[in-house]
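ingest -> validate -> predict -> emit
validate: passed (alphabet ok, no gaps, 208 aa)
predict: started
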Amino acid sequence: MTLSKLTTILILWLGMVALLFIIERFSAAPSSWDQVVLSHAAQLQSLWLDRLFLFITDFGSLYFLAPLAAVLAWLLARRGHPDEAWFLALSLGGASLIARLAKYLFQRTRPDAYPHIAALPLDASFPSAHTVQITAFVFALCLIIRQLDARAMGWFIAVAAPIAVMVALSRLYLQVHYPSDVIGGVVLALLWVLGTRQLFSAPGIRAG
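emit:
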C-alpha cells in the first residue's frame, strides 16, 4: 500500500471520528433544532404514515441487511469478484460495529418530547444505527455496481437512494432518533465506506 493511499484512508476515518464528535457536541440533545424537526414530524402523524414508516424502517435493520449482504457477497464471489464481496461485507459490518461503539461512547438518551410510534430501542440514540447500516449498504453497492456495470448504476440509485432516505426519515417520524443522530449516521457510513474502498483499491490488498 502506498503512503498516499494510507494517508487518504487515515484522513477519511479520522475525519469520520472527528465529525461524529463535532455533530454530537454541537447538537447535544435536546437542542432547539432537533426539537423543532421532531415537532414537525409529530404534527404529520397519521395512521397510514405510521404503517408506512413502521414498514420502511426495518429496511435499515441488520436482521434484513445482513442476510441480504451475505447473499450478494456470495453471488459476487461466485462470479469472480471476491474483492467486491469482502468490500460489501466490511462496509456494512464495519459501519454497524462503529455505530454501536459510538453509541456506547456518547450515551445520548433517546427523544422523549413526543409519543413514540415504534418500540423505543434500549441502546443509546447517537448515531442512528439504522441510518448507518442502510447508507453504508447502498453506498457500497453503488460503488460496486459503478465498477462492474456502470450502465446499471442509474437504475440502482433511482431505486435504492429513496429507500435509504425513507429509512432515515422513518427514525425521525417514529420519534426514536434526533435529526443529528441521523446526520451523524450518514456521515459515519459515507466516510467509512470511502475509506474501505480506498483500502480495497490499494495495490497488494486482495481477498484472494
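DSSP finds eight helices and no strands in the chain.
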